Amino acid sequence: MIQARFIIETQGNKKNDVENVLKKHVEQMKMMKGVAVYDVKFEPTEKVEGLFSALADVGIKTKSFEAFFAALMGFAPTAVVFESTEPITIEIRELQNVTNDIMQLFHLMAQKNLELKLRLSAKNQ
After folding, report:
1. I need a labelling partner for 61 at 20 to 30 A (CA). Which of 5, 35, 103, 112 fits?
2. Chain segment 23-56, per-residue pLDDT in tens
3. Strand pairing partners for 46?
4. Whose CA is closest to 5, among 87, 80, 86?
């Protein structure tokens, strides 16, 4: 069992917007297959360097390394704190699937980076 806390942050110009987006993220996490949300703590929204910042501290449990990694990639927490202390076993199939997901993300980032460079290069000519 993987038990962890996700610290999720949203920032924006409008207080209500960042709070609503954060609440929506938490509700989406609750609907994830294979992930149980067992505790949610919303911190008071603060204004930081001209932007509103909202934080949620979300406890999750899962038996699946793939589900944990899907939550990690899908919600991009600012920080992760593992609470479980027991060793975990990862099946090679799960490791392969997660590795392929990471590589797909890297390829997408590289493609977007190249597209941006090409647009900037075309603008400067």
Report:
1. 103
2. 999 999 999 999 999 999 999 999 988 899 999 9
3. 53
4. 80
Contact 40, 58 (CB under 8 A): yes
The full set of domain ranges for the chain reads: 2-88, 90-125
- The mean pLDDT of 88-111, rounded to a whole number, is 89
Say which residues have a Cβ less than 8 Å from residue 63's Cβ, sequence separation at least 6.
1, 2, 34
**Fold of the domain built from segment(s) 2-88:** Alpha-Beta Plaits (3.30.70)
Task: Give the other-Cβ count within 10 Å of 19's Cβ.
Answer: 17
**Nearest-angstrom CA–CA distance, 25 and 114:** 30
Cα torsion 105, 106, 108, 113 to 10°: value is 140
Cβ of 25: how many Cβ atoms within 10 Å?
Answer: 21
